[in-house]
Design brief:
Elements: H1 24-32, E1 38-41, E2 49-54, H2 57-66, E3 73-74, E4 77-81, H3 82-94
Antiparallel strand pairs: 1-2, 2-4, 3-4
């Protein structure tokens, strides 16, 4: 993998196929309604790995800027050890993005 996300579903794609990059009104509407930029998947007291899943173009950009290219990826999600998920979530929120 070349370090960039590959997204066969086009969800959050920046390659022009979904048209969001040319529609800032859609992105602004997302911010106004607090639609989530990321989901964090992982449950239970003994969860050791969480999946950080970007849902919007802004989330994909955030990952490109803050997550190492060699991070373990499962599709478009990033596998994150439990000891790091809190700090990553705080960084996402501090940058004004929304978690599901």
């Amino acid at each position: 993998m070349n370090g960039k996300h590959e997204n066969p579903s086009n969800h959050g794609s920046r390659n022009g196929r979904d048209g969001l990059e040319s529609r800032p009104d859609v992105i602004q509407k997302s911010r106004a309604t607090n639609s989530p930029d990321f989901s964090i998947e992982g449950e239970g007291r003994f969860c050791t790995v969480y999946l950080l899943r970007p849902l919007t173009p802004a989330a994909f950009d955030w990952i490109d800027e803050h997550i190492p290219e060699d991070a373990q990826r499962l599709g478009t999600a990033i596998a994150v050890e439990h000891r790091y998920i809190g700090a990553i979530a705080e960084g996402i929120l501090a940058d004004g993005l929304v978690l599901a």
